[in-house]
């Protein structure tokens, strides 16, 4: 009986249906992922799964975007995924993107993954010209993008043409100037070289800090009509609602900051903004589609909630995240300092080794030259000795001939010549013999002097040989000393790598003194940043002046002209919003 019941239970469990699923493809700014989702899943279930996969905790900035009938829509958290107007074919594609933007990226973006996703999205928007960026700022942003990708500039690695395949500047900027790709690369690289020492997350944050001051940063634009039927643009961002002329997306005509709006509502296609000050007229407008009205309302509610949230104390979760981020930043800073010290020690060791190797080569060359000089001295001495011997033998031979001539003269004198002719001939021969004897004596004397001189030269050559041998002994002793020094220097990196292992096994314990020192360093960094900002502005103005002569005025867009007018009046994004609020 029990066996029959067990078999029925097993059979029923086999017949139990597995939950129905569908495939979803999630595209982030730098990757694609596929998930198998249950039919009953809501938008929040899928969104949480993506955030867990990415390791993202600052979820309130992001959403899952899809397109329906040429209109952008966002997945609702409390609605089933399949209940949305998504295509029936699989996999169903959603884009994981930033839906809301921070007012201050440096203060609000805590996690490195959050900063990275924002960096990629804003960079793409600038390159796609969805965010207007002036030429000089485009070059500066490109230099930070290069620092984030390639690390510190190294002229031996990053040679001319290394950015040839990179997309770094908007096409509008490239077409606006008579400049070759090499000229743009040269200007980007000049700034890139100044970012030495910045890690990837620091370079990306610097990029965002500059980009967030651009007029179109974080603004969602919608085509609307007011009660009179005038075509306008509505801009929704982290600061409030802004009304623009269709031809001017940079400077709003009217702005409604979130803290001055009492209520936002829509009925069918009519949208109503009620200011907090009841004396101010209600602003009404119409959009083309009901779906667009829903999207505007979503963005208004989300941005308003974040606006109010920023002005309250951080939640416990955010406080924990910020504390962890500070500790992580401090740990990375200490790690970078340690690596910088080790790198400096290695470089010094390598420089010492190179200097010793150079000195050793120099001593080897000197030894080779001394050996050659010694060999030449020995050869010269042998030649001089041989020449002296030959000269001495020649002198002896001449002396012998002179003696024979003298004997011949005496014999001739002793011979009686009876006839005058014989006497005259004899006298002539005697005279010739005397002249020959005199010449022989002079030549003998000259040869003797030459032999003495050769002996003196031989003595000097042997003295030079002795000095060369002594110098060679000195060089040989120096070479052995240098080789011992070189071997001790070569052992230095081994000690350094053992030091690396020891230091890596240490745990980080942030005491009060460490935190005080870190606070002082942060304060010092703030002062340095202010100085760098001033220097940066000067560089931007200098680049703008430099490339102004190469600008093709006829290619300027309407936004270029508007930006130049705003710059000449000293208008910026924030003071313009304050003026029109």
From TrEMBL:
Q: Which domain of life is it from?
A: Eukaryota
Q: Which residues does the record give as a 1,2-diacyl-sn-glycero-3-phospho-(1D-myo-inositol) binding sites?
A: 76-79, 294
List each copy of the FERM domain by range. Answer: 22-311
Q: Does the keyword Repressor apply?
A: no
Q: Where is the composition biased (Basic residues)?
A: 571-581
Q: Where in the cell is it found?
A: Cell membrane; Cell projection; Cytoplasm; Nucleus
A GO molecular function annotation here is:
actin binding
Among InterPro entries, the record links this protein to: Band_41_domain, ERM, ERM_C_dom, ERM_FERM_C, ERM_helical, Ez/rad/moesin-like, FERM/acyl-CoA-bd_prot_sf, FERM_2
Report the membrane topology from the UniProt record: Peripheral membrane protein
One Gene Ontology cellular component annotation? nucleus
List the CDD domains. FERM_B-lobe (cd14473), FERM_C_ERM (cd13194), FERM_F1_Merlin (cd17186)
Q: Where is this region: Disordered?
A: 447-466, 561-581
Coiled-coil portions = 519-560
Keywords assigned: Cell membrane, Cell projection, Coiled coil, Cytoplasm, Membrane, Nucleus, Phosphoprotein, Ubl conjugation
Q: What is its main location?
A: membrane
Which Gene3D superfamilies does the UniProt entry name for this protein? 1.20.5.450, 1.20.80.10, 6.10.360.10, Phosphatidylinositol 3-kinase Catalytic Subunit, Chain A, domain 1, Pleckstrin-homology domain (PH domain)/Phosphotyrosine-binding domain (PTB)
This protein's record includes keyword Oxidoreductase: no
The name this protein carries in UniProt is: Merlin
The species is Picathartes gymnocephalus
Gene name in the database record: Nf2_0
């Amino acid at each position: 009986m029990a066996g029959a019941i067990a078999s029925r239970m097993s059979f029923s469990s086999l017949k139990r249906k597995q939950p129905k699923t569908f495939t979803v493809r999630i595209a982030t700014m730098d990757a694609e992922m596929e998930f198998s989702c249950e039919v009953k899943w809501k938008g929040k279930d899928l969104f949480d799964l993506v955030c867990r996969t990415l390791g993202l905790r600052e979820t309130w900035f992001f959403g899952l975007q899809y397109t329906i009938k040429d209109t952008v829509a966002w997945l609702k958290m409390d609605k089933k995924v399949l209940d949305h107007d998504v295509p029936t074919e699989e996999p169903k594609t959603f884009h994981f993107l930033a839906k809301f933007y921070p007012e201050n990226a440096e203060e609000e973006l805590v996690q490195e993954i959050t900063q990275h996703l924002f960096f990629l999205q804003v960079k793409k928007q600038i390159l796609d010209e969805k965010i207007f960026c002036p030429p000089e700022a485009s070059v500066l942003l490109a230099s930070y993008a290069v620092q984030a990708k390639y690390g510190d500039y190294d002229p031996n690695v990053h040679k001319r043409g290394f950015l040839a395949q990179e997309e770094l500047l908007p096409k509008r900027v490239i077409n606006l100037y008579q400049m070759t790709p090499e000229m743009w690369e040269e200007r980007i690289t000049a700034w890139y070289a100044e970012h030495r020492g910045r890690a990837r997350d620091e370079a990306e944050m610097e990029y965002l800090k500059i980009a967030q001051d651009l007029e179109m940063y974080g603004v969602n634009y919608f085509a609307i009509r007011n009660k009179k039927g005038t075509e306008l643009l509505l801009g929704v961002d982290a600061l409030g609602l802004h009304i623009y002329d269709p031809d001017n997306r940079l400077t709003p005509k009217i702005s409604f900051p979130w803290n001055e709006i009492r209520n936002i509502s829509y009925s069918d296609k009519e949208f109503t903004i009620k200011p907090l000050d009841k004396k101010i007229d209600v602003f009404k407008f119409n959009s083309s589609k009901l779906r667009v009205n829903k999207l505007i309302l979503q963005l208004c509610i989300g941005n308003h909630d974040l606006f109010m949230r920023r002005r309250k104390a951080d939640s416990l979760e955010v406080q924990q995240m910020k504390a962890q981020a500070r500790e992580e930043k401090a740990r990375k800073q200490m790690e970078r300092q340690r690596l910088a010290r080790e790198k400096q020690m290695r470089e010094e060791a390598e420089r010492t080794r190179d200097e010793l190797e150079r000195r050793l080569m120099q001593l080897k060359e000197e030894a080779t030259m001394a050996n050659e000089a010694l060999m030449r001295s020995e050869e010269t001495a042998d030649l001089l000795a041989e020449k002296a011997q030959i000269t001495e033998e020649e002198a002896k031979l001449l002396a012998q001939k002179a003696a024979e001539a003298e004997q011949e003269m005496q014999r001739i004198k002793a011979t009686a010549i009876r006839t005058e002719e014989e006497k005259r001939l004899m006298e002539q021969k005697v005279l010739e013999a005397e002249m020959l004897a005199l010449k022989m004596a002079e030549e003998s004397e000259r040869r003797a002097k030459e032999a003495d001189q050769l002996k003196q030269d031989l003595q000097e050559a042997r003295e030079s040989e002795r000095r060369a041998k002594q110098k060679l002994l000195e060089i040989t002793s120096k070479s052995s000393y240098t080789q011992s020094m070189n071997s001790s220097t070569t052992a230095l990196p081994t000690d350094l790598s053992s030091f690396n292992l020891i230091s890596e096994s240490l745990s980080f314990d942030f005491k009060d003194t460490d935190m005080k020192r870190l606070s002082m360093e942060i304060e010092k960094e703030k002062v340095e940043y202010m100085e760098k900002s001033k220097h940066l502005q000067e560089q931007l103005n200098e680049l703008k002046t430099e490339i102004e002569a190469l600008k093709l005025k006829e290619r300027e867009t309407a936004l270029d002209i508007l930006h130049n007018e705003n710059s000449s009046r000293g208008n910026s994004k924030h003071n313009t919003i304050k003026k029109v609020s």
